[in-house]
């Protein structure tokens, strides 16, 4: 089946939401669908968007900026986040690693 001459598999791929999970030694700080995430990389900041190529990177002390259409942050983690606007939050980290694969971002943060 096609829509406007595009196979449904391609349309479903393009609509698949990118997910982010930020895990600290104490708890999971965030888990949900996001539209963009900016990281403090050791060689400078970088942004990951939907369907980014697989990547693994080391993070330095700084701020992770998260853009999403909807945020659900646990009460335990809420104090760690700063609201920038209705669709953007930030969270400070000391260091960490990030992996992006198959449209899923996992951050191990200190």
From TrEMBL:
GO terms for cellular component: endomembrane system; proton-transporting ATP synthase complex. InterPro entries: ATP_synth_F1_dsu/esu (IPR001469), ATP_synth_F1_dsu/esu_N (IPR020546), ATPsynth_dsu/esu_N (IPR036771). Residues 18-69 form the ATP synthase F1 complex delta/epsilon subunit N-terminal domain. It is a peripheral membrane protein. GO terms for molecular function: proton-transporting ATP synthase activity, rotational mechanism. It is found in: Endomembrane system. Keywords: ATP synthesis, CF(1), Ion transport, Membrane, Transport. Pfam families: ATP-synt_DE_N. Belongs to the ATPase epsilon chain family. Produces ATP from ADP in the presence of a proton gradient across the membrane. PANTHER family: ATP SYNTHASE DELTA/EPSILON CHAIN, ATP SYNTHASE EPSILON CHAIN, CHLOROPLASTIC. This is F-type H+-transporting ATPase subunit epsilon. It comes from Flavobacterium noncentrifugens.
